[in-house]
Amino acid sequence: MKPLFITFEGGDGAGKSLQILRFKEYLETLNHKVVLTREPGSTEVGKEIRKILVEGDKDKIDETTELLLFYADRRINLTKVILPALSEGKTVISDRYNDSTIAYQYYGSNKFNDTSLMDNLYQIVAEGKKPDITFLLDVDVKIGLERSFNKAKTEQTKELRFENVDISFHERLRNGYLEIAKKEPQRFCIIDANKTIDEVSLEIIEKFNQKIKEL
Q: What is this structure's pTM?
């Protein structure tokens, strides 16, 4: 099978982690060799970056510092995980990639005038490397945040830095993701993540099988 670079995107509580595992199992039935990765935090250095980015007080670093840390992690992930796996003929599924940065740091934070800095960093860090397919798990903001906080109750490490931002941030984030997807319909599959886990899994598989015919 042709190796693919597939990303999963979505706001907090969209259910990406579980759906990625289910989709990996499906791809393996099609004889894909699958590598899973995530941003931030897929490598040892990335794990340290992740602690800074997703734990603690929401105001502990400014927007530019935050942005640079995300791109540092992306460069490490791309060179150490994604590109080597693809070169070996493996399909890579990444939990977040560059669309997350645009959605969170531009649309969500509302602190940058445009995406020019992000676009330039993306060219430097990733040399324009884009996913073949991106699944956007679109979930109602209140439902997503409720899921995130309920999940955090069962975890020792609380990764709630972004969840603790006001709800208007999450509304902008959701709208931003949908705007990004509109610009690249050939790459994106928008998934209704308000549905049950099984219904979401089925929709992902159905849209994947439609999209793969176009590649």
A: 0.89
